[in-house]
Amino acid sequence: MTTWTPDQPRFPLLDGPSPFQPLARFSAALGTDAEVWIKREDLLPLAFGGNKLRNLEFLVGDALAEGADVLVTSGRRWSNHCRLTAAAGARGGMDVHLVLTGPPLEAPGPNQLIGELLGATVHVTATAERAERESLVSNVADDLRAAGRRPYVIGVGGSGVIGGLGQVLAGLELAEQAADRSFSVSAVVLPSATGGTQAGLLVGLEMAGRDARVVGVTVAAPAAELRPAVELLVADLGSLTGRAVDPRRIELDDGERGDGYGIPTHAADDATRLLARTEGILVDPIYTAKALAGLMRGVREQSLAGTVVFWHAGGTPGLFEPLDG
Ligand SMILES: Cc1ncc(COP(=O)(O)O)c(C=O)c1O
Which of 55, 73, 80, 232 to mutate to test the pocket of ligand 1 (most atoms within 8 A of CB)? Predict the structure, then answer.
C-alpha cells in the first residue's frame, strides 16, 4: 500500500474514500466476461457530489494559506466545478463569484440555481466567446480588489497542478481499494474535458505501482487538442510527486464526442438507460454518459477486458440542464 501526504495546504471537504462497487447486473447485460466496477465520485459529500471536490480541497487550502477571502472561478453553465466551488466556499467561509459562459438562458439552469442557492454571486457573459469569459473573470477580480477584498482565481475546471493533486490521491485511493479486494484493475474509463482528472489518476496509479490503463473519453476538446495539456499536467504532477509517467500511457478516445461539448448522443442515452435499469444509478448526458458509452463500446469490442472501472465523476444535475440537440 502506498500512502502519500502532499506538503501542500489542504482544506478537508471529503469524509473518506468514495465507494468502489461491482456492477454485476450491468456487466451481465453487456454479455461479455469483463467485470465492470464503479468508482462513485458522484457520492462525494457536498452539493450533489463530483470529482472536482478533490481538486477543491487543495485549491481552497491554497487560497486560505494565501490569505484570500473570496474565490473566483468560471466555466460553462453546466460546470460541476463551479457548483462545487460554491459549496466549498460555503464550507470554507469564503465568498464565491462564478463567471458562467452565456448567452444567458431565458431562465437560469439548475447548476446556476444551485450555485446561487449555495450563496455564490453569478455573472453570465453576453456571448459564448471564451475571451469574453476570461476578461469578465479579470474584471470581477479587479473590482473585488478595488473593494478591498483578496480574491483567489481558480482556472477552468480547477485543473492545474494544485487541483490535480486531489486526483493523484484519487488514483492512490483506487489502488488501495483494489488491493483490499485482492484484484488488479485492467482499465479505468472516465470523461475527460480539461484532462486534469485523467492526469492525476495516471500519476496516482503510477505511484502505487499499478499499470492500469486510464482511458479518457473526450467530451469537450478532441484528443489532438487535449493531449498536449494532459502531457504537461502529467509532467508537472510527476515533478511534484517524484513519479514520472510515460506520456504514451495517456489514452484518449474521441469516439463519443458526437457533435461536441454538452450535445447529447444516442449512444450516451442508451448507456444512461442501461445503467439506470440494471443498477439504479444515474449518469449525466454531458460527461459521464459519454464515458459510459465509451466503456460499453470497448467492452463489447473487447478492447477493454478484465476488471474495468467506470469512473463516475459526478455531474448528475446535468440531467436537468437544458441542452441543444
Ligand atoms: C462530472 C464531470 N466529469 C468529468 C469532468 C472532466 O474532468 P476534467 O476536466 O478533469 O477532464 C468534469 C469536469 O468538469 C465533470 O464535471
Answer: 80
Calculate how far, in angstroms, residue 85's C-alpha sits from the geometric centre of ligand 1.
13
Cα distances from 12 to residues 58, 171, 230, 237, 290, in angstroms, run 8, 18, 26, 20, 30
Active-site residue flag, 74: no
Report yes or no: 191 and 291 within 8 Å, Cβ to Cβ.
Answer: yes
- Nearest residue by C-alpha to atom 9 in ligand 1: 194
pLDDT at residue 3, rounded to an integer: 78
Report the SS3 class of residue 95. Answer: strand
CB-ligand 1 contact for 159 (6 Å cutoff)? yes
Question: Which segments of the chain belong to CATH 3.40.50.1100?
Answer: 20-50+159-320, 52-157
> Domain 52-157 maps to which CATH number in 3.40.30.10, 1.10.3720.10, 3.40.50.1100, 3.30.70.1130?
3.40.50.1100
Is the C-beta atom of 318 inside 6 A of ligand 1? no
106-120 pLDDT tens trace: 999 999 999 999 999
User: What class is the 20-50+159-320 domain?
Assistant: alpha beta
Torsion of CA 302, 42, 105, 286, to 10 degrees: -10
Q: Say if pTM beats, i.e. exceeds, 0.85.
A: yes
Q: What is the pLDDT of residues 258-280, one digit of tens each?
A: 999 999 999 999 999 999 999 99
